[in-house]
Amino acid sequence: MPEKTMPHNLDAEQNVLGAVFLDPNSIKTIADSLSVDDFFTRRHRIIYKAILKLYEEAIDIDYTTLIDRLDTEDTLLDAGGSDYILGLSDTTPSLANLEHYINIVRDKAVIRNMIEEVKTVSEKGFDAKDMQEYIDESESRIFDVARSRRTSDFVDLRTVTEEVITKTEEAKNKQGELTGLDTGFERLNQYTLGLQPSELYIIAARPSMGKSAFALNIASNVAKLKSRPYIAFFSLEMGVEQLVSRMLSGEANVASTRLRLGELNPNEWQRLSVASDRLAKLNVLFDDSGTVKVTDLRQKCRKLAQENKLDVVVIDYLQLLSGSFAHTNRVQEVSEISRTLKEMARELKVPVVALSQLSRSVEQRNVKKPIMADLRESGSIEQDADVVLFLYRDDYYNEDSERPDIVDVMVAKNRSGATNVSGFPLIFRKKYSQFKTTSDPKHEPQETDLDDID
User: Fold this and answer.
1) At what angle do helices 131-147 and 294-306 cross, to 10 degrees?
2) Which residues contact 246 (CB under 8 A, 6 or more apart)?
3) Cα separation values, 151 from 12, 107, 110, 146, Å
4) What is d(CA 51, CA 70) in angstroms, rounded to the nearest whole number?
5) For the chain, what are the domain ranges?
6) Which of 23, 91, 223, 379 has its CA 20 to 30 A from that of 320?
């Protein structure tokens, strides 16, 4: 069986080179888009390399200067000779489709690079000693090629303005309806308009504030929507049985301790059965396999997306992930993790909700409410996140708190909306791992004076 020729388009390559003779200024566009290696035919690589040299030296590019340069470098015959170069402009219909010709040449080059990388990955597999290391290196190689594919062109202001106006009119027609996925918490929806695709949400708190339960509540609420969204819940701290037990406890209004002990009365057994049937219909997919590398997590999410089984990603919690390679310090590693999660949200066009621990500096202050500075020791989380929520329980720090079982949800950052550093209250029914809304004025938090926090 004859060996297949690598993908290429001879006409497109000729049209790109011929465009330079039709309009010497076109080299600016071409040089910004194509490298010498993007051309498949050897003679075209030689010609383009000579053209680039003339361009870099600010020498006018025409037949005479190009042929002279090739002749001086003793590569004229390898480039096809004078007649071939003189005939290049004849093969180019017009400059109107130059961008299209460039894209064809670039796309074929990316495909060739991908084929070569796949061959390399295949060959390395025979000598691989460590499975995970081999997969990580293979994924990195493939991803590097994928990132080199042509990016979208610039969009002019008029086009974007028209799109914004259209979306504004749609929002007006919706009369305050959510544009994202309903979190089940009205006050939170007021700030975010629901969980938005391509956005990274950080829910940060010190231990025992209820952030895992809060994330579970959001996942459950979203999964109950009529559209039956798919939720990928990555638990790096708790096993899936413990998570589902918490969901059953809240759904059935049965204390989690009674569930663990099996001490249920007939009425509670009945409620548990009904709750089990309701939860069984939800598309919540748990992963408690101990996925540690953020690249593994992204790979699993890509697979779900390809199967049309991904609408929201929840990660509990971010600091238990590790980067894709060794870092000199933990701050750099967490920065890579948060950046990868944001890239994943944009790539897969789904909201990503990641829980995060706060630094111990909170415990050393008189005012225990968290602030953005408590995230800064955790890499670039603050920078990468679109929304940052802090959870705070006054009764955790003050036994005589006048607001028992109340969690303040503080909107510390909101890239597309308003913030609220004082927060809004939710009732936390800890024994049921359940959050409830409240309209009682006495539950409202006092305004936070940031100047009081040192």
Assistant:
1) 60
2) 212, 213, 216, 256, 433
3) 19, 11, 12, 11
4) 9
5) 10-147, 179-452
6) 223
103 Cβ contact partners less than 8 Å away, ≥ 6 residues apart? 150
Q: Which helix H or strand E contains 233, and what residues bound it?
A: strand 231-235
Q: How far apart are CA 248 and CA 452, in angstroms?
A: 41
- The reply to whether domains 10-147 and 179-452 share a CATH topology is no
Contacts (Cβ under 8 Å, ≥6 apart) of 449: none
Residues of the chain with pLDDT under 50: none
DSSP 50-63: HHHHHHHTTPPPSH
- List, for residues 285-336, the tens digit of each pLDDT value: 988 776 677 888 888 888 888 888 999 999 987 888 877 666 667 777 788 8
**CA–CA distance, 181 with 170 (Å, rounded to integer):** 17
397, 368 Cβ separation under 8 angstroms: yes
Structure tokens at 18: 């011929």
The Cβ of residue 327 has, within 10 Å, a number of other Cβ atoms equal to 16
Beta strand residue intervals within 300-442, DSSP E: 312-316, 352-357, 387-393, 406-414, 420-429, 434-437
Q: How many residues does the chain have?
A: 454
Q: Give the residue from 44, 16, 45 showing the smallest Cα distance to 30.
A: 16
Question: With contact defined as beta carbons under 8 Å apart, do 404 and 395 qualify?
Answer: yes
Q: What are the C-alpha distances in Å from 220 to residues 64, 197, 322, 349, 409? A: 71, 18, 27, 20, 18
> Does the active-site annotation cover 241?
no
Catalytic member of 237, 241, 363, 402:
237
Fold of 10-147: DNAb Helicase; Chain A (1.10.860)
Within 8 A by CB and 6+ apart from 245, the residues are 256, 259, 260
Measured CA to CA, the distance from residue 295 to residue 50 in angstroms comes to 41
Give the global pTM: 0.68
CA dist., res. 71 & res. 50, Å (int): 10
Angle at 354 between CA 351 and CA 355, to 5 degrees: 150
pLDDT of the residue at 327: 63
Q: What angle is formed at CA 397 by the lines to CA 392 and CA 399, rounded to 5 degrees?
A: 125
Distance of alpha carbon 427 from alpha carbon 250, whole angstroms: 13
Give 68: exposed, middle or buried? Use CB within 10 Å, 0-12, 13-18, 19+: middle
Determine the pLDDT at residue 49: 92
d(CA 446, CA 420) in angstroms, rounded, equals: 12
Handedness of CA 389, 355, 286, 303 (dihedral sign): positive
